[in-house]
Every structure is written in structure tokens, then in C-alpha cells.
Design brief:
Number of strands: 9
Shape: globular
Structural class: alpha+beta
Strand order of the largest sheet: 1-2-3-5-4
Oligomer: single chain
Distance between the termini: 58 Å
Helix content: 40-55%
Largest sheet: 5 strands, antiparallel
Radius of gyration: 18 Å
């Protein structure tokens, strides 16, 4: 009998490890996600999972990314500048390698956002990252990916890793330090996003995320998702104000 180890996380489905692979429920979007992972791997990006089709239960098969995952509250070492830079650099590589795929007719789980420039990960955050010796080592969980503008994805990374999220974690940077970290994140990504544009985009992103979380709460009977939605709305208001002052 094959040994299956249930992995932490998996808010939408049960995720298990089988040897050097990960298995999770598939959906209509799985072929698009696997096409994205194939494109990223073909471009030389190794810090993302590789896809290997479906197993006998119809679950998708992905390679296991070795390393540590973080839980909330986030540890103090997560705010090291090298993690900020390395995460932004990988996001840029993923975006650049997805340009061609972004304009193909594929079925994604989440809606597209205009203008379509790249395939966005849409959940590029510490809880989907792996770390080795407290250094950024990769990103997983591409199920929410869909085409959209680069800044849509970048703004959410800034939310999580600058951070702008309410209660970011142990010793999370605050106040003026956050704008310096945003500038560093922008520089590491390598495109001159204006601060104001990032914050405005993030405000809109959080309103959409709040709507989505409330819908999921109603569909799944998980009231904690309504708490998440309320936080996203509070944070969205703060982002709008920060954008005015940026």
C-alpha cells in the first residue's frame, strides 16, 4: 500500500505527499496549470513544481519541493531583505516565461484581469513558499493562476512580504520602513512600478479577495473566511489612503 502523508495547508482541498510527489484534487483548470508549470520548467525555472499528469484517483501529480514552510504568525527571519529580493526575482522570471501562455485560450480557475500581460500566480505569499536554511527556495500552489497584468500579482506579493497586511507577523516592519521595503521589492522585480499604482492596485485586489472570501464562507460554512474578508476590506481602505500619500 502506498504511504500518503497529509501536508499542512490545503485550504481548498486535501494535499498529500507520496514519495517525492504531491497529490491534490484536480479540476477543469488543471490542464492550464500544468501547461504553465511545463512552460516555466522549459524556460529553466526549477524553483516551482513540475507536473506529471493525474494518478489513478484523478488527482494531479506534482513534484515535491523540499524545504520548510512557514505558519502564522510568521517568524522574524521572514523579513530578511534577501527573501524580499529573491521572491521578487522569481516572480519576474515566472511572469516573463508565461507571456506566450497568457494569450492562449485555456480554462483557469479564477477570472482574467485586464490588461492581460502574463499569467499571474495570484497567491504569491509566504504560506506558498518553501525555505531552506531560512532562505527563499521556491513557490508552489499554482491552482489560482490566471492571466492578468504584472502589477496585479506584484501588489499581492507586496501586501504579504513588505508587509502591508494587518498583523504581518513577529517583528514585522512598520511605518516608514515599509515604503523602503516596497522600493526594494520594486527594484528587485526590475520594472519601475510607481508606489501609488502598486497601492491602488492592491486596494482593488483586496476588495476582490474580500468578495471571494465571503462567497467561499457561504459555500463552505467556514465563518473564519468572513473574518478574513473583513480584514481585507480594512486593509483596502488603508491602501487607498497610503496611495494618496505616496
Amino acid at each position: 500500500m502506498v504511504n500518503e502523508e497529509v501536508l499542512a495547508g490545503g485550504n481548498s482541498s486535501i494535499v498529500v505527499r507520496v514519495g517525492d510527489t504531491v497529490r491534490r484534487n484536480s479540476g477543469p483548470w488543471t490542464p492550464a496549470v500544468h501547461a504553465l508549470l511545463d512552460a516555466l520548467r522549459a524556460s529553466g525555472i526549477t524553483r516551482v513544481p513540475s507536473a506529471a499528469g493525474l494518478d489513478e484517483q484523478g488527482r494531479e501529480i506534482l513534484s515535491f519541493l523540499p524545504g520548510d514552510v512557514v505558519q502564522y504568525p510568521l517568524p522574524e527571519w521572514i523579513w530578511h531583505p534577501s527573501i524580499l529580493r529573491d521572491a521578487a526575482g522569481l516572480l519576474r522570471q515566472i511572469h516573463d516565461s508565461s507571456v506566450g501562455l497568457a494569450h492562449e485560450t485555456l480554462s483557469w480557475q479564477l477570472p482574467n484581469h485586464e490588461p492581460v500581460e502574463v499569467v499571474c500566480h495570484n497567491d504569491f505569499a509566504p504560506y506558498n513558499m518553501v525555505f531552506q536554511d531560512q532562505r527563499f527556495a521556491g513557490i508552489f500552489d499554482f491552482d489560482a493562476a490566471s492571466p492578468g497584468p504584472r502589477i496585479w500579482d506584484f501588489a499581492y506579493l507586496a501586501y504579504q512580504l513588505v508587509p502591508f497586511i494587518e498583523g504581518g507577523g513577529v517583528a514585522a516592519p512598520e511605518g516608514p520602513e515599509r515604503m523602503g521595503r516596497l522600493d526594494e521589492l520594486i527594484a528587485a522585480y526590475g520594472l519601475p512600478f510607481p508606489r501609488r499604482d502598486v497601492l491602488r492596485t492592491l486596494g482593488a485586489r483586496l476588495v476582490e479577495l474580500a468578495d471571494y472570501s465571503e462567497g467561499r464562507a457561504a459555500a463552505t460554512g467556514r465563518p473564519e473566511l468572513n473574518d478574513h474578508a473583513a480584514m481585507y476590506r480594512r486593509d483596502s481602505i488603508r491602501m487607498v489612503q497610503l496611495a494618496k500619500d505616496a
